[in-house]
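Subject: sequence -> structure tokens, single chain

Hey, anyone have a minute? Need the predicted structure for the following. Not urgent.
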Amino acid sequence: MMKQVLKATLLAGTLDICAAFIQAYITHKIPPLTILKYIAGGVFGKDAFTGGYDMAAFGLLFHFIIAFACALVFFALYPKLKLLKYSVVLNSVLIALVAWAVTNLVILPMSKIPKGNFDLSKAAIAAAILFVCIGLPVSIMAKKYYAVRRFRP
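Reply:
Had a minute. Here:
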């Protein structure tokens, strides 16, 4: 299972960070390096923005750790919760909402990132990105993994 979780993490994490780069650049002309430093800022605070590629690397590492946690939890719950076997789309929505909630209600409040005001349109865009980039790949890969395992002797 761990090999599949790692594959799901790599795919979902890559899609998600690329979407974040594109969305930030299109809407605010923010370069990818700044996005990665922002993620690192959750641990290192304002010092992340004065750092170089080392801080960007930490940001990328933290991003993939979060993607890994999403994939691992979903893969672990998939065989235990019967309702997860019904719909890839519903699972993707569930993964996106849980990922958004954990990020915004747990990770960000505990981080050193300055708190901003809630913006419904930004939240909707973030949830849509999570649905497409994290939810769909993880849900589809878990379904395929457990379908193959079911037919093995």
